[in-house]
Design a protein that fits this description.
Elements: H1 8-25, H2 31-38, H3 50-65, H4 68-74, H5 78-91, E1 96-105, E2 108-117, E3 120-121, H6 128-131, E4 133-138
Antiparallel strand pairs: 1-2, 1-4, 2-3
Helix pairs in contact: 1-3, 1-4, 1-5, 3-4, 3-5
């Protein structure tokens, strides 16, 4: 799986299975156990291809947000998206981290989840770290 190409059929199946799994267990089991379950066994070869990472993100995003299945079943939130991307990127050899942060808006706490690659948020606004105080990070 660490090559320069992706098998779209296999990736679609993985995403659909992950969407279903995350929807079934999120809120029903301890969050830390869920993240541990989603983390694949340590990869032996680290993938550094930005091109492959962008292709994977683009494809996963399409399945999650533009497919009827993704939108009806997934009901996208930043946490669900981050959990799915965390698993997929790690399967393909990208050492990403899952992050959760909070910020105060008009006296209320708002939370956000995102993926980081080499400690930098990816596929997020550039100033995400300045907006949210990091509460949780898991590699």
């Amino acid at each position: 799986m660490n090559g320069k190409t992706i098998n779209r059929f296999f990736l679609t199946l993985q995403v659909i299975i992950l969407i279903t799994y995350v929807n079934l267990v999120l809120g029903r089991i301890n969050f830390q156990k869920l993240v541990i379950c989603l983390r694949p066994a340590d990869f032996r070869v680290e993938n550094n291809s930005n091109e492959l990472r962008d292709k994977i993100f683009s494809f996963v995003y399409k399945v999650l947000y533009t497919s009827l299945f993704g939108y009806l079943i997934f009901r996208p939130t930043c946490l669900k998206k981050s959990l799915v991307l965390y698993r997929i990127f790690r399967l393909y050899g990208f050492p990403v981290e899952l992050n959760i942060g909070v910020k105060k808006v008009h006296g209320n706490l708002e939370a956000h989840s995102w993926i980081s690659y080499r400690k930098l948020p990816i596929y997020e606004k550039d100033d995400i770290l300045s907006e949210y105080e990091l509460l949780y990070s898991y590699a």
